[in-house]
């Protein structure tokens, strides 16, 4: 998918009815406003110079011959009435159009979000949250400015110019042709400028992106930065980036303003030339002074719309570049969508896992998993051990479908993951992450992720996760906020929150990726004792460095450099001199 003006136009056409109504209002508004400037100047000829004409004759027909002030008052009233009507109609039409344009940008944001939610994790890793938020805020706003401006004003402006053109042609066609030829010339010249200036807008948006990227990273890693006593450097980096925004902002602001004013200057020069020609025609030709003043009045009517058209032209080019930036999101790859053909999780409480010749690489170059074969039986309790960097976490992530399989097959019972669907797999296979991140919200939210869960069940899960006492001792209990990324909890407490979340979800298969590494041995032991009932009925994979963690494992896989180098029961492995101890820290 890609956002183009064509697609935006298609969106616009979804509001056909509103669009038509708003344009009819616009036409009426133009018709209403067009005669207004003509009325007063006509009085110059008809009342002051005593040459009765269209206005006085019609008023006479209705009310009989009148004093001069009556004509003036009637015409004044009519003019103000027409102008007020114009005001009312434009407010109405602006309302309809802003609704349409906001709905379209809402749709763009929604599409961006839904694409982001389906991105493959590979893409996520390269993605900065700062960059993305700047696309959402700054670039979508650039498009929004254009839409708001163009769909509401373009048609009125063009209609007004056409309306004025028609009247001018009627008054004096030679003069009218002259001024009308100036317009296309100005538009063509502006187009060139607009395209150039939009480069500065793009640069401005890019500097916003860089700043917001650096800012969000600095805020996310603030603890790290403070720990290494680097605040000054990082703040300096942000200063530099905001300085870039300033510079790019100034460049864009004054250059776009200058270009726009220059386009307008061109128009004004044509306009002055035209005025000179009008006076010339009065002096040597057959144009009356009243009509000349009327023509001048019309030129003023034309002025606003011309300026709008020039503005829209500039804004169009900015929006075009912003759309290109927004499309970076749509160009990112989605994770594969597998159909829901089989659901092995529904039929039984737990499942077997089979990996056949699974190989994987993050970058298509350096293999991280090499030809892995495993068969983990239903209800089995398996441990995976291996040195840091040997591929344990990668393997766990493959099992829950975080990354699509590149080579080999993965089965739950007899069903291939490609027939189950990634969402179903993740619902039923729970990976307790190595470094669980928490939401800056309450403990309750972090346990339920916003789902409605029975209070009793929450406390039960906390009890099993060895957190009951901890949470009870907190002032607000479950409603205590945990801070950004959960900083107000200790590392071990965060791990246990994650385990409690797993208990609440009650998955068929559980994978614990060093999920108890931050716990002391005693707490870990109590935790596993409490978890025993739950783990007993399920297929469980425990990834660990400590022998104590994998004590109850029925079977152990030893990973080295992406390969399974040994497998067997603990007793079998211990016999293999050295190797096992190398991967398992500390105590026997
Ligand atoms: N998202 C990623 N993108 C690219 N390479 C990665 C990514 N995650 C891990 N790797 C690489 O893959 C290899 C295996 O990493 P993995 O996290 O699976 O190891 P591990 O066995 O879990 O290590 P540890 O015991 O330290 O947690 C490492 O060499 C690492 O550099
Ligand atoms: Mg790991």
How would you sum up this structure, described in words?
This protein has 22 helices and ten strands. It has about 600 residues and is an alpha/beta fold. The protein has two domains: about 5-330, ABC transporter type 1, transmembrane domain (ABC transporter transmembrane region fold), CATH 1.20.1560.10; about 345-585, 3-Layer(aba) Sandwich (Rossmann fold), CATH 3.40.50.300. Strands 6-7-8-3-9-10 form a six-stranded mixed β-sheet, sandwiched between helices. Strands 2-1-4-5 form a four-stranded antiparallel β-sheet. The longest helix is centred in the middle third of the chain and has 54 residues, at about 230-285. About 35% of the residues are buried. The mean pLDDT is about 85. Magnesium ion binds next to α13.
How many separate domains? 2
Q: Mean of the pLDDT scores?
A: 85
User: What's the CATH H-level superfamily name of the largest domain?
Assistant: ABC transporter type 1, transmembrane domain
Total strands? 10
Principal-axis shape equals elongated
Brief account:
This protein is 65% helix and 10% strand. It has 588 residues and is an alpha/beta fold.
Note the topology.
Layout: H1 5-13, H2 16-33, H3 36-48, H4 54-63, H5 68-117, H6 121-125, H7 129-171, H8 173-220, H9 222-227, H10 231-284, H11 289-331, H12 344-347, E1 353-361, E2 367-376, E3 381-386, H13 392-399, E4 407-412, E5 415-416, H14 417-420, H15 422-428, E6 429-432, H16 443-448, H17 455-464, H18 468-472, H19 491-505, E7 509-513, H20 521-536, E8 539-543, E9 555-560, E10 563-568, H21 570-575, H22 579-583
Parallel strand pairs: 3-8, 3-9, 6-7, 7-8
Antiparallel strand pairs: 1-2, 1-4, 4-5, 9-10
Helix pairs in contact: 2-5, 2-7, 3-5, 3-11, 5-7, 7-8, 7-11, 8-10, 8-11, 10-11, 17-19
The structure holds adenosine-5'-triphosphate and magnesium ion (MG).
């Amino acid at each position: 998918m890609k956002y183009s003006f064509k697609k935006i136009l298609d969106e616009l056409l979804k509001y056909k009815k509103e669009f038509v109504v708003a344009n009819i209002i616009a036409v009426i508004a133009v018709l209403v406003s067009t005669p207004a400037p003509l009325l007063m100047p006509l009085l110059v000829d008809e009342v002051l110079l005593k040459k009765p004409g269209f206005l006085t004759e019609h008023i006479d027909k209705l009310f009989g011959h009148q004093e001069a002030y009556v004509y003036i008052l009637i015409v004044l009233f009519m003019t103000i009435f027409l102008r007020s009507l114009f005001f009312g109609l434009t407010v109405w039409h602006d309302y309809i159009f802003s609704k349409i344009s906001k709905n379209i940008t809402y749709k763009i944001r929604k599409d961006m979000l839904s694409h982001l939610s389906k991105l493959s994790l590979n893409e996520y890793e390269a993605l900065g949250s700062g960059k993305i938020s700047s696309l959402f805020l700054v670039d979508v706003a650039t498009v929004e400015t254009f839409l708001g401006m163009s769909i509401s004003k373009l048609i009125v402006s063009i209609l007004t110019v056409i309306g004025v053109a028609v009247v001018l042609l009627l008054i004096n066609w030679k003069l009218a042709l002259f001024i009308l030829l100036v317009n296309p010339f100005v538009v063509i010249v502006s187009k060139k400028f607009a395209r150039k200036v939009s480069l500065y807008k793009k640069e401005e948006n890019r500097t916003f992106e860089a700043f917001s990227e650096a800012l969000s990273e600095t805020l996310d890693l603030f603890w790290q930065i403070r720990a290494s006593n680097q605040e000054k450097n990082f703040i300096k980096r942000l200063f530099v980036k905001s300085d870039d925004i300033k510079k790019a902002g100034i460049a864009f602001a004054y250059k776009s303003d200058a270009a726009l004013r220059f386009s307008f200057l061109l128009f004004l020069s044509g306009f002055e030339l035209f005025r000179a020609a009008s006076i010339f025609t009065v002096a040597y030709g057959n144009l009356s002074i009243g009509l000349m003043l009327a023509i001048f009045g019309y030129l003023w009517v034309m002025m606003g719309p011309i300026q709008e058209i020039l503005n829209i032209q500039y804004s169009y080019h900015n929006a075009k570049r912003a759309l290109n930036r927004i499309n970076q999101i749509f160009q990112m790859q989605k994770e594969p969508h597998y159909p829901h053909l089989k659901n092995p999780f529904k039929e039984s409480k737990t499942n077997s896992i089979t990996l056949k010749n699974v190989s994987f690489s993050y970058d298509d170059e350096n293999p991280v998993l090499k030809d892995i074969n495993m068969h983990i039986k239903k209800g089995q309790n398996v441990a995976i051990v291996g040195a840091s960097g040997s591929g344990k976490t990668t393997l766990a992530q493959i099992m829950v479908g975080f990354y699509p399989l590149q080579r080999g097959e993965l089965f739950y019972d007899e069903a291939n993951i490609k027939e189950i669907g990634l969402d179903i797999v993740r619902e039923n296979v729970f990976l307790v992450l190595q470094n669980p991140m928490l939401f800056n919200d309450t403990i309750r939210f972090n346990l339920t992720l916003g789902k409605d869960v029975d209070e009793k069940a929450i406390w039960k899960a906390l009890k099993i996760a060895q957190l009951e006492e901890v949470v009870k001792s907190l002032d607000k209990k479950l409603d205590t906020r945990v801070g950004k990324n959960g900083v107000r909890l200790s590392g071990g407490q965060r791990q246990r929150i994650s385990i409690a979340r797993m208990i609440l979800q009650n998955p068929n298969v559980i994978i614990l990726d060093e999920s108890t590494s931050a716990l002391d041995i005693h707490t870990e032991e109590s935790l596993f004792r409490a978890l025993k009932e739950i783990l007993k009925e399920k297929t469980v994979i425990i990834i660990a460095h400590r022998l104590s963690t994998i004590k109850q494992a029925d079977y152990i896989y030893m990973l080295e450099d992406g390969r399974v180098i040994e497998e067997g029961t603990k007793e079998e492995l211990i016999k293999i001199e050295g190797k096992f101890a190398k991967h398992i820290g500390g105590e026997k």
